[in-house]
Amino acid sequence: MAYKVDFKTVSTVGLESSPVAPALAGLRANEARYFWNKFKHEFVTVPASEAPETLQWIETILAERDMHFGYKPLEVTEFVVEGTKWAYVFYENGLAVNVLYSLEDGGKRAVGFKLSDGMAIPAEFEGKFKFARQRSKLAGTIRGSFFVIKGTY
């Protein structure tokens, strides 16, 4: 069932099984606020089981860097705004992965990682990525990093 993310009233709908559900919900709401303020786009997620092709596309891109997560994916979303394809997966442990993929050749293409407030840095990231900190009224402290996509997907 699709869920339109409300960034004014943060809800853990779809994320209840996460040990950091309130922080993950805040992170998801923070992303929804960004897309609304920048593009007037409503951020709608679905359970990961309802969109396996989105999850598979993200996992294929992550494999470019030999990254394979054993975490349970809770929700995903995929949409195109102003010539850029965006895809997100929110994992049960509090990790959010997003793909920014310009549909034009030579445009920006990257994978971003955001860690929910209160979660430890996963072992897969140790020594590979440096995380910048960002404060958010909705999500507390968000730690994020990214890598540039080299392949074509």
Tag the structure with descriptive keywords.
globular, 2 helices, 153 residues, alpha+beta, eight-stranded antiparallel sheet
Which structural class best describes the helix and strand composition?
alpha+beta
Shape, per Cα inertia axes? globular
Contiguous uncertain segments of 5+ residues: none
User: How many β-strand runs?
Assistant: 8
Global mean pLDDT: 96
User: From the structure provided, what is the oligomeric state, counting identical versus distinct chains?
Assistant: single chain
Query: How would you sum up the major sheet?
Result: 8 strands, antiparallel
SSE topology string: EHEHEEEEEE
Distance between the termini: 27 Å
**Proportion of beta-strand residues:** 25-35%
Helix content: 10-25%
Order of strands in the sheet with most strands: 1-2-3-4-5-6-8-7
Please provide a written account of the structure.
- The protein is an alpha+beta fold and 153 residues long.
- Helices cover 20% and strands 34% of the residues.
- The chain has helices at residues 21-39, 52-62; strands at 3-4, 44-47, 73-81, 84-91, 95-102, 109-115, 132-136, 140-148.
- Strands 1-2-3-4-5-6-8-7 form an 8-stranded antiparallel sheet.
- The longest helix is centred in the first third of the chain and has 19 residues, at 21-39.
- It is globular.
- The mean pLDDT is 96.
Short description:
This protein has helices at residues 21-39, 52-62; strands at residues 3-4, 44-47, 73-81, 84-91, 95-102, 109-115, 132-136, 140-148.
